[in-house]
């Protein structure tokens, strides 16, 4: 901690990060041990965060992330989209196909940024806001593959054909190493198969986007 930072705010943010990383919540004692502070400090932090709906406690006393975080999260998509656009533009122009950034939204895959190539005679129309099941299409399948790998392997790319639109093929690679964001970068094109060079190029673009979001 430096003189310009707030110890209390730092601890509160650490509480939120700890809770975000668990599905079953944490007790006051568990938070106290992880933060290295006494239980009284944790109680105060949780009480303050509860007032802002950022934390809730269940009947068993376990603390979890509250619904107030969702209101903050709605403002994340525009920032993420802006950071990703340069890499998506480069990808779309290089491949000559519609490039997209897709994030997990509940049980769906949600396209939050889309860039179409400027020089092609035709390309797939794919709009920001389009959503589909995670187990359909290259974008969702790439995210699920990254989940299964658990960050233990170098991410590859996923190829699909005709799963979301007849005659269209897709390639996507997951975002890796971006805290709090689960997503993928990909392209969709009107083709029976994805050209060999597209997969590695999509992986590179996903790395670029991840770097921009860190």
TrEMBL record:
InterPro entries: ArsR-like_HTH, GAF-like_dom_sf, HTH_MetabolicPath_Reg, Tscrpt_reg_IclR_C, Tscrpt_reg_IclR_N, WH-like_DNA-bd_sf, WH_DNA-bd_sf. Keywords: DNA-binding, Transcription, Transcription regulation. Residues 68-214 form the IclR-ED domain. The keyword Transcription regulation applies. SMART domains: HTH_ICLR. Coiled coil: none annotated. Pfam families: HTH_IclR, IclR_C. Residues 6-67 form the HTH iclR-type domain. PANTHER family: HELIX-TURN-HELIX TRANSCRIPTIONAL REGULATOR, ICLR FAMILY, HTH-TYPE TRANSCRIPTIONAL REPRESSOR ALLR. This is Transcriptional regulator.
């Amino acid at each position: 901690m430096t003189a310009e930072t707030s110890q209390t705010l730092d601890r509160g943010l650490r509480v939120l990060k700890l809770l975000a990383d668990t599905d079953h919540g944490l007790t006051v004692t568990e938070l106290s041990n992880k933060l290295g502070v006494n239980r009284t400090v944790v109680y105060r932090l949780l009480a303050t965060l509860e007032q802002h709906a950022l934390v809730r406690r269940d009947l068993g006393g376990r603390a979890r992330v509250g619904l107030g975080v969702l209101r903050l999260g709605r403002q994340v998509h525009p920032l993420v989209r802006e950071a990703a656009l340069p890499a998506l533009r480069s990808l779309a122009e290089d491949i000559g196909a519609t490039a997209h950034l897709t994030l997990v939204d509940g049980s769906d895959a949600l396209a939050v940024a889309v860039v179409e190539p400027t020089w092609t005679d035709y390309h797939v129309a794919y709009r920001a806001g389009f959503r589909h099941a995670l187990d359909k299409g290259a974008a969702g399948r790439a995210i699920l593959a990254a989940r299964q790998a658990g960050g233990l392997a170098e991410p590859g790319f996923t190829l699909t054909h005709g799963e979301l639109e007849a005659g269209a093929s897709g390639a996507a690679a997951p975002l890796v190493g971006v805290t709090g964001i689960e997503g993928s970068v990909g392209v969709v094109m009107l083709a029976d198969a994805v050209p060999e060079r597209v997969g590695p190029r999509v992986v590179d673009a996903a790395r670029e986007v991840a770097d921009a979001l860190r």
